Amino acid sequence: MPDTDASVLDRPIGFRRSPAPIAYATAVTTMEAHVAAMHQGEADELLWLLEHPDVYTAGTSADAAELLDAGDVPVVRTGRGGRFTYHGPGQRIGYVMLDLKRRRPDVRCFVHDLEAWLIRALAKLDVVGERRAGRVGIWVRTPTGEAKIAAIGVRVRRWITYHGVALNVAPNLERFAGIVPCGLAGFGVTSLAALGRPTDDATVDAALRTAFVETFGRLNDVAEVDFGAPRR
Questions:
Q1: For strand 130-132 and strand 84-87, is the pairing parallel, antiparallel, or unpaired?
Q2: For domain 6-224, which CATH number applies: 3.30.450.20, 3.30.2320.30, 3.30.930.10, 3.40.50.1820?
Q3: Catalytic residues
Q4: Per-residue pLDDT tens for 27-42?
Q5: N or C, which end of the chain is more exposed by having fewer CB within 10 Å?
């Protein structure tokens, strides 16, 4: 658990799980509003689990040559770090809005913690997730070689984080052929379904939630909240 300002531990991290798909643009607008409220001291930290309809997103380092064939999938430029990635049905998104200034103002450590969160969640689903030097995201070993099962792309504004992670549960993996995922050519992409692991949202979200608490030190402090609710 990272070093934190003790006052952070007195505040609950909000938890929201959206059952219906949320359009990517809507999610970004919502996150930006919540981050603005956090800067004003009017909202708590938040973990938001959700799913998007089909979309390719281009991060701040995206190279146009890595968009191979979008087909009928919309392409959206976004302010998160990283390159091209795919979001769609069967993929769980975890948007993480935390105050690093009160925790540890170190973006590299934050990304390391996000990786630890995903690795712990996968372990609860009987999957061994691993880091790879020079390759952001979480990787697994398969009979045909290494494959990426989760992506990470974050943005930090005045030490408050947003955007986050994407875990492949049971997406259409053929969609990844339309891009060079995260700029990493020559590597496969896989999912929990392809590995024969649980794919129902309730089981996956429970693993993500429990592992998040373990990683960020919140034990029973995670509570259900609505966006825009004032801090208690």
A1: unpaired
A2: 3.30.930.10
A3: 182
A4: 999 999 999 999 999 9
A5: C
